[in-house]
Design a protein that fits this description.
Helix content of chain B: 40-55%
Chains: A mainly alpha (about 40), B alpha/beta (about 325), C mainly alpha (about 300)
Low-confidence stretches of chain B: none
Distance between the termini of chain C: 88 Å
Low-confidence stretches of chain C: none
Strand content of chain C: under 5%
Distance between the termini of chain B: 49 Å
Number of helices of chain C: 14
Number of helices of chain B: 11
Helix content of chain C: 55-70%
Number of strands of chain B: 7
Mean pLDDT of chain B: 85
Oligomer: heterotrimer
Largest sheet of chain C: 3 strands, antiparallel
């Protein structure tokens, strides 16, 4: 049962995998870099 | 092991002794009224973990609306000890003087019911929230607190900023007492720097000499420690699954727009002073520099918090998204 | 009129004793409460309206009962007689329940279940009665159409620690946590339902069936990003076209977010949560299952 638990845990990786997530993540990444640039 | 248990129990009793309410001591302090002769009498505040949690949760539940509540506790020498807190059914603490007048009946009922339930602590102060604009007393707050200190001594004013609490990752809280009308305080040591938004700067500036802040410390009971330890075991899930960047977008946007306004204001003043630039003898010590240095400090503070948020996102991405079956 | 009133009341008592509820109600409703000849005081009128409504409800006659409950609603606010007010609230809740306005009925039952006093007038309110009101409130909420409003009321009940002692709690928990309900669970829940809660709807489904299908559909929308109607029908235990019809109705009523591709016979569920927030949710799940693995290992002494 323990091994089954571990395998179901591994099957949950990666936590999320979608184009929309990549877009949102990079958007947020760029926003933060922009703020840093403005602060500079 | 028995000795260590005994020690642990002794420590617990010591920790918990603060929770004991000695009515005679409090009555004596009420009779002596040491605070009457010294406007600066109270210097310290000790807040229980329970009261802190209740005030922060209440402040956050208000969102961008200011909330208000009361604190129960006692005094111990020059310290005010806050044991518990409860919310008041009022809103708009910053838009009218003495908002708590709406809740007098509620406060009386609550205090009486508490006494019947064996809770002897009196109300020792009020707390309210400043969502996103820092912990200080506005003009309205000063007049409310002065009123309280006239009729309800000992009385403390606590301000909590729930928005900054989220972004700073620690509770933004301030405890204050006002001076009597017309009292000239000795020169204050500069309190810790905090950003005041442009639309509040005047309100802040006019009244900041009418009150002083107290040193805030916290305490918890042995049971609190046990419960918080249990919670701490689960806290790592919160840390890994939270995104400060997500939760605080509106606040950061507000901060940046406030910064832009301050920059424009500083620039306008700089230009308007250019004329006198040619006559150095009129040049005063540049307040704008300190203004500009404040703006620089604010902008680096914002961007550091943002970069911290981004770092946690990148670490989470590497940790949870880079593994592929 | 005085004599008629006395005779009617007497006859009504006799009918009531023989459990001829509607006849007793009709006998009392013959009393002219708005007579211009004699002035009847408001509390008498209120007591009669509530009495007649209760009698009609004994025969599940919501229509006539509602007539008298509506009359009582104009009188109840000024009444100081708590017993009458309580009886009026019970009538109002039962009528809403019978008219299948389940969410409104649930809130009224819940209000009744929160009565603090244990004695009102010479009536004793026992815990059993309050528990029945609470159970009725939870039952009505489960039967209500699935959606955000129902979720909010469910959250109230789930956090009310009195509910955890109710027989109905296991199903309340699964419904609140938006888990799919299996046939055996639904059947056991159906055992305690009243007749009108098992009545057939025009589309040949019972009230319970519709509530359960919609609930399971909403739960499925949290589990899957998309699913074919073939599969969905199998999951819900109904024909695929039926599943499509119910899904389209829920999407149209904004009780579920999604889109239907009729050519492919597929439904795509939307989650209005931001991707980044979903990501955090998935991370919470991951951490918790890691925690479970570690707990299991420590239990096994590994």
């Amino acid at each position: 049962s323990l091994l089954r638990q571990v395998s179901s845990l591994l099957r949950r990786l990666p936590a999320i995998e979608s184009g929309k997530f990549q877009d949102d993540f990079l958007m947020e990444y760029n926003d933060t870099l922009l703020i840093t640039y403005l602060a500079m | 092991s028995s000795s260590s248990t005994a020690q642990a129990q002794a420590a617990a009793i010591d920790t918990d002794s603060i929770y004991y309410y000695d009515e005679s001591t409090q009555t004596k302090s009420q009779q002596d009224k040491p605070w009457v002769n010294d406007p600066h009498y109270f210097k310290r505040v000790k807040i229980s973990a329970l009261a802190l949690l209740k005030m922060v949760v209440h402040a956050r539940s208000g969102g961008t609306i200011e909330i208000m509540g009361l604190m129960q506790g006692k005094t111990e020498g020059d310290s005010i000890i806050v044991m518990d807190a409860f919310a008041l059914p009022v809103e708009g603490t910053e838009t009218r003087v003495n908002a708590q007048a709406d809740a007098y009946e509620y406060m009386v009922d609550y205090s009486q019911t508490n006494r019947q339930a064996g809770r002897l602590e009196n109300v020792v102060g009020w707390y309210h929230s400043h969502p996103g604009y820092g912990c200080w007393l506005s003009g309205i707050d000063v007049s409310t607190q002065m009123l309280n200190q006239q009729f309800q001594e000992p009385f403390l004013a606590v301000v909590i900023d729930p928005t900054r609490t989220v972004s700073a990752g620690k509770v933004e809280i301030g405890a204050f007492r006002t001076y009597p009308q017309g009292y000239k305080p000795p020169d204050e040591p500069v309190s810790e720097y905090q950003t005041i938004p442009l639309n509040k700067i005047e309100d802040f500036g006019v009244h900041c000499k009418q009150y002083y802040s107290l040193d805030v410390t916290y305490f918890k009971s042995s049971l609190d420690s046990h419960l918080l330890d249990l919670l701490w075991n689960k806290y790592w899930v919160n840390t890994l699954s939270s995104s400060p960047l997500l939760g605080n977008r509106d606040y950061v946007a507000g901060q940046i727009s406030d910064l832009a306004e301050k920059l424009e204001q500083a620039e306008t003043q700089l230009h308007s002073r250019m004329g006198s630039f040619l006559m150095p003898q009129h040049r005063k010590k540049e307040p704008e520099d300190s203004q500009l240095s404040k703006i620089t400090r604010d902008s680096s503070k914002i961007t550091v918090e943002q970069v911290h948020g981004l770092m946690s996102q990148v670490i989470k991405d590497i940790l949870f998204n880079s593994v592929h079956p | 009129e005085e004599q008629v009133l006395i005779i009617r009341e007497k006859l009504a008592e006799l009918y009531e004793a023989e459990q001829e509820w509607s006849k007793a109600a009709r006998m009392l409703s013959g009393i002219d409460l708005d007579s211009s000849i004699r002035l009847l005081d408001e509390s008498y009128k209120l007591s009669k309206c509530v009495k007649i409504a209760s009698l009609y409800l004994e025969d599940d006659d919501a229509v006539n009962a509602e007539t008298f409950t509506n009359k009582a609603s104009f009188l109840v606010n000024n009444s100081k007689q708590e017993v009458l007010v309580l009886q009026y609230k019970v009538c109002a809740a039962r009528i809403l329940d019978m008219k299948r306005k389940f969410l409104d009925a649930a809130l009224k039952y819940y209000e009744i279940s929160q009565i603090e006093k244990r004695q009102i007038g010479d009536e004793w309110i026992d815990e059993e009665a309050l528990e029945q009101a609470l159970t009725a409130a939870v039952t009505c909420t489960i039967l209500a159409p699935a959606g955000p409003q129902r979720s909010r009321v469910l959250a109230n009940f789930y956090k009310d620690e009195r509910c955890s002692k109710l027989k109905i709690y296991p199903i309340l928990e699964k419904v609140y946590l938006e888990r799919i309900l299996r046939k055996p669970e639904i059947d056991s829940f159906a055992e305690d339902l009243k007749e009108h809660q098992k009545a057939l709807l025009p589309d040949n489904f019972t009230v319970l069936d519709r509530a359960m299908i919609e609930h399971n559909l909403l739960s499925a929308s949290k589990l899957y990003t998309n699913i074919s109607f073939e599969e969905l029908g199998a999951l819900l235990g109904i024909a695929p076209p039926k599943a499509e019809k119910i899904a389209s109705k829920m999407i149209y009523e904004d009780r579920m977010k999604g889109s239907i591709d009729q050519v492919e016979a597929f439904i795509h569920f939307d989650d209005d949560k931001e991707e980044l927030q979903q990501w955090d949710q998935h991370i919470v799940g991951l951490c918790q299952s890691l925690n479970d693995v570690l707990d299991t290992m420590s239990k096994k002494g590994l």
